[in-house]
Amino acid sequence: MARFYRPGVGFSPPEIPPALRVQVLRATVEGRLLIAAASPVAVLGLLNMALGLTDMVMVGRFDPQGLAAILAVGDLQSIVFNFSAGFAGLVAPHVAAAIGARVAWQVCTIVQRVAVLVATLALLCVALIWNSAAILEAAGVHFDQPQVTRDYARYMAGAYAFMVLFAFGRHALTALGRSRFAICVILLALPLNATANQVFMEGAFGWPGLGAAGAGLASFVVAAGMGGSVMVYLFMSPSFGRYRTPVMPPIFVLPEILTLLRPALLMGLAAVAETGPFLCATLLIGAVAAEDLMAHGLAFRAMAVCYLLLAGLGQAVTLRIAYLRGRSTSRREAHALSTARLFGAALMAGILVLFCLNPEIVAWAAARSIGSTDPKLIADTSALLPLTGFALTAAVPAHLGCAVLRARGEALSALVAFAVGHSCVGLVAMAAFGAAGFGADGIWSGLFLGVGSGSAVAILRLQYERSVSIGLATV
Fold first, then answer.
1. Nearest CA among 309, 266, 244, 304 for reference residue 415
2. Which of 138, 163, 249, 322 has the fewest CB within 10 Å, making it most exposed?
3. Which residues lie closer than 8 Å to 299 by C-beta, 6 or more apart?
4. Within 10 A of 465 (CB to CB), how many other CB atoms are there?
5. What's the pTM?
6. Domain positions in the chain
7. Main-chain dihedrals φ then ψ at residue 204, nearest 5 degrees
8. Nearest to 153 by CA among 114, 127, 179
9. Per-residue pLDDT of the chain (475 residues; tens, 9 = 90+)
10. Are 332 and 53 in contact (CB under 8 A)?
């Protein structure tokens, strides 16, 4: 205490060492940049979830039997869309790196060439979703209303194509720092989607409507407006135009497009490998513990909301690291990585506090989101949430580690981490625990083991790269 006392001044706090002050300032700057990049991504994900929830609620009230068919088609479509969204996500790190390197023509060229790849992929996958009802029937899934299911699948094929274009435009605008337009578009789409569902399902002005299949037509109309408007804004906006140069290289150069195709496919497969086990968990619980399916659905919904924060942070890390690598500033990249670790640790702590220490509050909020106050449902969900929290906490290192790998152009390493951990270990463990009769608890425990294994693989890969870099620096 005596060393903090100054005659005539009194007690004064100790001075912060200059080196520590500089580190705090750097972390503050990097933290603000990460928050600014992550917030729009999380908001867009939440609004996308609201769109899907609107469809389910309105179809469930109008035709509960049709809802089961729509959910079955939606599960298949979600796998295809996750692959396509990961595929389209290639544009973000490449654009960020080109902006960091200050190569204006490369920004435009990358966006245009990836747009060609995304449009081609959308056309190919439209045929798959168009015939998704027939594919599910061939796989043994039977529908009470087969014609309604087929009509819904065909409408959703068109909606899928435009939603992929919207995902591509969102990624590109986020990399350009202009994601506000995408947020405004989806905010306008929410009331339009509810109105279109009402009209196309129940009819209007003497028209009888299409029933549950009308939800697919409503999604197609809304998706066309969303995807079309974002693509027009992307290519017509001054934010994109300022990267155009008087002399631009041609777009359709096959070797250059094929060079982009490989990492795009790897990123799409990595997205499926990451999210696939979470989707399979629902199918496994429905098969081995159907009585726990409702509680699992609520726990899964709570986890999905928190996962949006992780997805936003992951994309922010990818953009920041790619930008700094384009600038060739390894020291600032190290500062950004340190800040990302701090944010990841804070997110993990928040998840544990929320899901493990306050599961009753989360379970009550999840039940209220579907209009239920059933005490047994809330209690069952509350008992499942700690395992959900552990699984989500284990996913943080894997997601952020693979975000860094994607920024460094190592999409194959990210795919290996997700495929080995999430898909291989996770699916095997979930199936084993489910077959052993552990129910939903066992399946979530298996998911925790798989996600933890993926995190371990990602961390080991980053540590190996770091040790190699240190070894080269000392030579």
1. 266
2. 138
3. 363, 366, 381, 384, 385, 388, 444
4. 15
5. 0.84
6. 40-252, 269-469
7. -165, 150
8. 127
9. 455 445 555 555 556 666 666 677 777 888 888 888 888 888 888 888 888 777 777 776 776 666 666 766 776 777 888 888 889 888 989 998 888 888 888 888 888 899 999 999 988 888 888 887 777 777 666 666 777 778 888 888 888 899 999 999 999 998 888 888 889 999 998 889 888 888 887 777 666 677 777 888 888 899 999 999 999 998 888 877 788 777 677 777 778 888 888 999 999 999 888 888 887 887 777 777 767 777 888 888 888 888 888 988 999 999 999 988 888 777 888 888 888 899 999 999 999 998 888 888 888 888 887 667 778 888 888 888 899 999 999 999 999 999 999 888 888 888 898 888 888 898 898 888 888 888 888 888 898 999 999 899 999 988 877 665 544 344 4
10. no
* Torsion on CA atoms 67, 276, 316, 394, rounded to nearest 10: 110
Contact 223, 155 (CB under 8 A): no
Which residue's entry shows tokens 């906006």?
237
Amino acid at 362: V
Helix axes 18-62, 214-236, angle to 10 degrees: 150
Backbone φ and ψ for 211, nearest 5 degrees, come out as 75, -145
β pairing state of 5-6 and 10-11: antiparallel
Residue 226 CA to residue 220 CA, distance in Å, equals 10
Residues 6+ apart with CB under 8 A from 128: 80, 135
User: Burial level of 84, CB count in 10 A (0-12/13-18/19+)?
Assistant: buried
At which residue do the structure tokens 């800040």 appear?
A: 339
Cβ(37)–Cβ(316) under 8 Å? yes
Helix boundaries (H) for 203-329: 214-236, 238-241, 254-288, 293-327
**Secondary structure (H, E, C), 177-235:** CCCHHHHHHHHHHHHHHHHHHHHHHHCECCECCCHHHHHHHHHHHHHHHHHHHHHHHHH
**Taking a C-beta distance cutoff of 8 angstroms, is the pair 289, 440 a contact?**
yes
Closest CA to 43 of 316, 343, 396: 316
Cα–Cα nearest to 451, from 405, 410, 401: 401
Q: Which residues, at least 6 apart from 177, have a Cβ–Cβ distance to it below 8 Å?
A: 239
Strand partners, 5: 11
Angstrom CA distances, 160 to 165, 166, 311, 335, stand at 9, 10, 21, 39
Phi, psi for residue 177 in degrees, rounded to 5: 75, 25
CA distances from 28 to 12, 269, 331, 363 (A): 25, 35, 16, 34
pLDDT, residue 472, reads 37
